[in-house]
Design goal:
The complex is a heterodimer of chains A (about 260) and B (about 120). Chain A has helices at about 5-20, 105-125, 130-140, 185-195, 200-210, 220-225, 225-230, and strands at about 25-30, 35, 50-60, 75-85, 90, 95-100, 100-105, 140-150, 160-170. Chain A has about 260 residues and is of the alpha+beta class. In chain A, the strands form 2 sheets. Chain A has a 5-stranded mixed β-sheet. The longest helix of chain B has 16 residues, at about 1-15. In chain B, about 35% of the residues are buried. Chain B is mostly beta strands. The chains are: A alpha+beta (about 260), B mainly beta (about 120). At the A-B interface, β2, β3, β4, β5 and β8 of A face β3, β5, β6, β9 and β10 of B.
């Protein structure tokens, strides 16, 4: 629910897709609707696998003094993953069914959840995964990792699910037109987004804007002070003369007698 | 007398409602070799399709579930003497388009008329 949390989520989704986990490319971004499996399994062949769904959930920032309303503070990222009986293809002659190489039993569902959970933690810090490196670039520190498991109450289909809640501290959102540091996470993110043709690219471009350097840092936007406070504090020195204007020594002297 | 009437009624109901199914015995997720798969006619009523979702018991419980229907299978015991259905067995609805597969969640074998099986979706 901020530019950085959106970028974090997308980077995590892309990293997991490329990370070769047990779910393959079945990594869902903020999926709300139910996953639907047809009776023949053909129409939904892309969701035969277990799945991971990534959400950027709650965030909390305190002491906004230095970054104002751009602050992201602690962002909770949710990784929900699950495996269901409807993901296992059944041999209709003898009943044998396999999901990700294991017979579709409860202990094997659990084993898949354990492996997926491990793989999520490994992929997000993989040095060879450019998206994972972007993900890490937005994070200033990893604060908490909570894991939970659950299963459905089985009246329609067997479903086992796990959840990782990762709490990270993230940088504040950039302001519009802020020059993005070369080699920083935003520059890398925009480059990868363009390479991979992400559909959200235009939104990011609009939100980040073209880099522009004004006469002064925009203290109001950066820190949340009001213009009158900024003037009172003399943040705009020389009464607002743009810093690009160089004041040189007097070039001529007029003797007024 | 009552049992004859009962059998007659059940026969009439089955004639109207029963469909061809295949029972696949399973054990530990593998085909059970001790019991043979058979095809029989029984009443299979599949449930309303809805979302089966895991609940993590905290605010952030979200996340997608699986759309599934499940159903109930009622098998005439007198016509299928000796049939044993266990939890985990699979049922293939042979008359239906693309032959959907169901998994037996539990079996009520206390009625002397019918084996009543709660089913969940499988594919």
């Amino acid at each position: 629910m901020s530019l950085t949390s959106m970028a974090l989520r997308i980077a995590a989704v892309q990293a997991l897709k490329a990370g070769g986990t047990l779910v393959g490319s079945n990594v869902l971004d903020s999926q709300i609707a139910a996953i639907d499996h047809t009776a023949d399994g053909k129409l939904s062949s892309d969701q035969e696998h277990p799945f991971i769904a990534v959400y950027s959930d709650a965030a909390r920032a305190m002491d906004l003094g230095s970054t104002g309303l751009r602050s992201n503070g602690q962002i909770e990222l949710l990784f929900n993953f699950g495996v269901s009986m409807t993901m296992a293809r059944t041999d209709k002659e003898n009943g044998a069914s396999v999901v990700s190489g294991l017979p579709a039993t409860d202990p094997h569902f659990e084993a898949l959840l354990d492996m997926i959970s491990l793989q999520i933690a490994r992929v997000l810090v993989d040095p060879d995964n450019p998206w994972a490196q972007v993900f890490g670039g937005f994070v200033t520190s990893y604060l908490a990792k909570e894991q939970a498991r659950s299963s459905s109450n089985v009246d329609r289909a067997r479903l086992a699910a796990g959840q990782i809640k990762l709490t990270v501290a993230a940088f504040a959102d950039p302001i519009h037109g802020q020059p993005l540091a070369e080699g920083g996470p935003w520059a890398a993110f925009m480059q990868l987004a363009e390479t991979d043709g992400l559909s959200q690219l235009a939104l990011f471009q609009a939100a980040l804007g073209d880099a522009s350097i004004g006469p002064y840092a925009e203290f109001e936007r950066l820190t949340g002070v009001t213009s009158s406070d900024a003037k009172s504090l003399l943040l705009y020195s020389y009464g607002g003369v743009p810093e690009a204007i160089i004041i040189t020594e007097a070039s001529g002297v007029v003797d007024l007698g | 007398m009552i049992s004859e009437l009962r059998a007659e009624l059940m026969g009439e109901v089955d004639e109207e409602w029963a469909e061809e199914i295949r029972h696949l015995p399973m054990t530990q997720g593998q085909p059970d070799t001790a019991r043979d798969p058979i095809e029989l006619r029984a009443i299979l009523r599949s449930g309303d399709r809805g979302e089966e979702r895991a609940d993590f018991g905290r605010r952030a419980s979200g996340g997608p579930g699986i759309a599934a229907g499940g159903g109930v299978l009622r098998i005439d015991r007198s016509a299928n003497i000796g049939l044993i259905v266990k939890k985990g067995d699979k049922i293939v609805a042979l008359d239906r388009l693309s032959k959907p597969v169901f998994e037996v969640f539990n079996v009520d074998d206390r009625s002397h008329l019918r084996l009543i099986c709660e089913l969940g979706d499988a594919v």
